[in-house]
Amino acid sequence: MMKKTIQLMLVMLIGVLVVTACGDDALEGNESGSDQPEVVNIGYLRVPNDEMVAKTEGYFDQYFADLGIETNFVVFDSGVEANQAFASGSVDFASMGNTNGIIALSRGLDVELVWLHEILGEIEALAVRDGAGIEQVEDLKGMKIATTFASTSHYSLLQVLNDAGIADDVELVDMKTVDIVAAWERGDIDAAYTWQPSLGRLLEDGEMLISSEQAAEMGHKTANVLLARKGFTEQYKGLTTDFIAALVEGGNLYREDSKVASESVADPLEIAQEEALMQMEGSVWLTPEQEVSSEYLGTSEEAGDFSRVMKQTSDFLLEQSSISESPSQEDFDAFINPEYIEAYLAR
């Protein structure tokens, strides 16, 4: 009788341990075993930010490769291409300017904003030719200006043109960044608002008329953001938190040793280390603690100021007919999801 009682107790104990383990896995979103994805598809921009550092330093491999998960990186010229990929379901994460994040929400894409890569400063700017006699924005009246439509550069350009009162007196041309450089070299355009590294090519024989840092000081803040497919994040919460962890490591390397971080991204961007460092210093990199502060994304309980920036930008895009409908403030509050940053900070 005693032997049967002990056997029964052992069976019950094993059952409790199994249930407890399953419960812990559910809380963290454990993806072990056959439930984990074979590949994570990541869309990125060719800019020297935390994601580029994490990619070149192999930080994503530390979290995914060791689990047997492949990381497939796909480069996009802009968020327009990233949103097309989200619409087709071909990417799980993608970086873009916050204006394209707004477009994703307005089009009803099943995605959410989970991270701010950087607040844009001199990494984006309006460039004019040396010796062209253009000393202020008003001098651009009657000229041809290139930018990538629906991008943060486009948004900033429209704002500074409006502030100068010449929005209807210039010709805007929609171009990809590579085409902007080519048009500049041919002399087809008078000015261009674009981002690094293309901006650096223009500044070789041009000058910066106004930067996104100055535009932000005028009340037009922009940022590069990370969007994630909700079908992925809701199923693989732990892996999404791991993705955030890799980005944090990329940012930490820059904060701890900017020379090493800039050397890491220089080769893949095909620029000198000094140029990479200058570009990195042209934007504001946030710590995870800053990300969830009231100034930026806020918390799961209370949305931060960046949600209101998104709404204000959205209303402007609607006025410019860039979108057909501006989501509500409540929609933006729900669109921004800091839960994975909070999960990282709780580890």
TrEMBL record:
Sections of the chain in a coiled coil: none
Similarity comment: family membership: Belongs to the bacterial solute-binding protein SsuA/TauA family.
Residue ranges constituting the SsuA/THI5-like domain according to the UniProt record: 53-250
Domain of life assignment: Bacteria
Protein name: Glycine/betaine ABC transporter substrate-binding protein
Organism in which the protein naturally occurs: Halolactibacillus halophilus
GO terms for biological process, alphabetical: alkanesulfonate transmembrane transport
Alphabetic keyword roster: Signal
Highest classification ranks of the organism: Bacteria, Bacillati, Bacillota, Bacilli, Bacillales
